Amino acid sequence: MIIVDRKNCDRCGCCVSVCEADCISVYESRIEIDHEKCVSCRKCVWICPLNALEFRNENGSLNN
Ligand code: SF4
Ligand code: SF4
């Protein structure tokens, strides 16, 4: 699943624009991922200019 590093995220919205599942929401102080809708494409991870997103497997290992 996608993990957000909130202290790095500046809520620029780049990840929202590439998310094909439309499952990222930007709020005033944070972003939220709807993990039920996420299709694990990782496009958000690759486009984030601040490295604020990671994709982790169910066992917790990094899989970007
Ligand atoms: S692209 Fe990165 S910095 Fe921008 S809103 Fe998404 S997670 Fe935050
Ligand atoms: S991995 Fe893909 S579907 Fe999931 S939140 Fe990121 S861009 Fe959206």
Summarize this structure briefly.
This protein is of the alpha+beta class. Helix content is 16%, strand content 19%.
Write down the secondary-structure element order. Answer: EHEEHE
Largest sheet: 2 strands, antiparallel
| CATH fold title | Alpha-Beta Plaits
Strand content: 15-25%
Chemical compounds bound to the protein: iron/sulfur cluster
- Taking the alpha carbons of the first and last residues, their distance comes to 10 Å
Secondary structure tally: strands: 4
Q: What spatial order of strands do you see in the largest sheet?
A: 1-4
Query: Could you say what the CATH architecture is?
Result: 2-Layer Sandwich
Number of helices: 2
Please tell me the total number of domains.
1
Instruction: Give the overall average pLDDT.
Output: 96
CATH secondary-structure class: Alpha Beta
Contiguous low-pLDDT stretches (5 residues minimum) are none
Output the structural class. alpha+beta
- Helix fraction by DSSP (H/I, runs of at least 4): 10-25%
For the CA atoms, what is the radius of gyration? 11 Å
Overall shape: it is: globular
